[in-house]
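Q: For a teaching handout, I want to show students what a protein-ligand complex looks like in C-alpha cell form. Below are the inputs, and the small molecule is pyridoxal-5'-phosphate. Please produce the holo structure.
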Amino acid sequence: MTVPNIITSLPGPKAKALIERDARAVSPSYTRDYPFVMARGEGAVVEDVDGNLFLDCAAGIAVSSTGHSHPEVVQAIVDQAQKFLHMSGTDFYYEPQIKLAENMAGIVPIDGPVRSFFANSGTEAVEAAIKLARYHTKRQYIIAFFGSFHGRTLGSLALTASKPVHRKGFGPMMPGVCHAPFAECYRCPLNLKPETCSAECLGFIEDQIFMHLVTPDEVAAIVFEPIQGEGGYIVPPQQFIDRLRALTRQHGILLVADEVQSGMGRTGKMFACEHYGVKADIVTVAKGIASGMPLGIMSAPRDIMAWPPGSHASTFGGNPVSSVAAIATIKILRETLVRNAAEVGAHLMTGLRELQQRHPIIGDVRGKGLMIGIELVRDRVTKERAIEERNAVVHAMFRRGVLVLGAGKNAVRLSPPLVLTKAQADTVLKLLDESLTEVTAAVAKR
Ligand code: PLP
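A: Here is the structure, written as C-alpha cells, with pyridoxal-5'-phosphate included.
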C-alpha cells in the first residue's frame, strides 16, 4: 500500500461524526488545525477512522519518537501492565523507576552524578525545575526568553512567552520572572549578523535586567530551550549558548535546559545541548521520552537535587508503565534512531534547501536532525510573515495526506517520528513542493 492514500473526502463521514461529538463534550481550548481523527498508527504512518493513510510529520507534537506503537515499547508496556500498573514512587520503591533514573544519569547533558525527579508532563518537569532552582539557590528570580514555550500550568506559564493567547486571561502570572530576547538570528532583534555578532542579545540581561530590575544574586535560574520549539524551531548560534553558560557560571545562576521538545534523539543527538557541547545544571525532558506514554523528568546533579522528603512529589510521576516505555525508548534511540534522525534529517534538509531555491515564499529553513522549521515570508527582503499562507500550506499538506503542524507565527514544523525513512522524506518533499505551488498560485490570483 502506498502512503499517503486518501480514499474519502476529508474529514470522512466517521471523522465528521466524531468531531461533532467532540465539539459538544471536549474543552474548546485545544488547537485543532485540521480534522484528523486517529484510528491506528505504525511507524511514521497513521490511519484515520475512515481508512485514510497519512504520513505523520507531527508525531503527536514531537512525541512518538520510536514511531507509533513500536513493538518493543508495546511489549515492555504489556509485560509491566501484567505485573502492576501503579504503586506511586512517592511512597514506595519499584525497579522501573530506579532503572530509568540510572538510564537518565547516563545520558543527560549534566556533569557528575545525577538524580532525577519524575512527573507526568513537560510542564510538570519545568515546575519541578523552578522549584528546585529556587530551593537550592534560595533566590527567587527566573529569567526566560521571548519566544519560549515551557508549559501552561501557572509556574511554567510565567516563563512561556510564545503567543499572547497562552497567557491572556490567566494573569497575574507567578511573580519573579523576567524575559530577555532569544537569538532569533533570522529576525535579529538588534539587526546584527550571526557571523559578526557575539550574541549581543544576551547583553540585554546584563545591561537591562541586572541594571534596572534585579541583581544577579537574586536570580535562581535562566531557563532556555536549546532549540526553541513552539516559538518557531529557532536554532541559536554557538556563541549564544557559550555566552549564556559563561554568564550563569559567573553569577552562580543555574542553567536550566528545557529539552522537552528538542531532547530524546530528535535533533540527531540524544539532547540538543550536545550540538553545542554545553552542560546544563538542570535538564527537563518529556514528550519523546516514553514514545507517547505520559512522563516528565527533571534531572540535576546529586548535590543540587538535595531537597528533603515531602518537599516535592507526584502521585503518578514516573508511573511504572511509563517508566518501562521510557527505558525501551532510550534503548531503541541509542541503538538506531538517534542516528536515523541525523541521517534522514540531513536528507530532508538538503531537499528543503533545494525547494527554497525554487519557492521564494520559503524565507528560512533551519533545524537539526528531525526538528526542522520552514519559515514562510511574503517578501524575502522585508521578511513580512506569511501567516495565512503558512496555515494554507498546513491544510494543503493535510489534503495530500501529510500531517504537519505550524510553529511560531509563520513557520511549518517537521517533527516526524524518528523512524522516518529517506523514501518517506522524499514523499514529504514532493507533497510540500506541490502544496507550496498551490498556495503561491492562490495568492497570485488574489
Ligand atoms: N517545554 C517545551 C520546550 C515544550 O515544547 C512543551 C510543550 O510543547 C512543554 C515544555 C510543555 O510540555 P507539556 O505539554 O507536556 O506540558
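A: Two things your students might notice: The chain has two domains: 13-70+336-445, 71-333. The first helix runs from residue 13 to 25.
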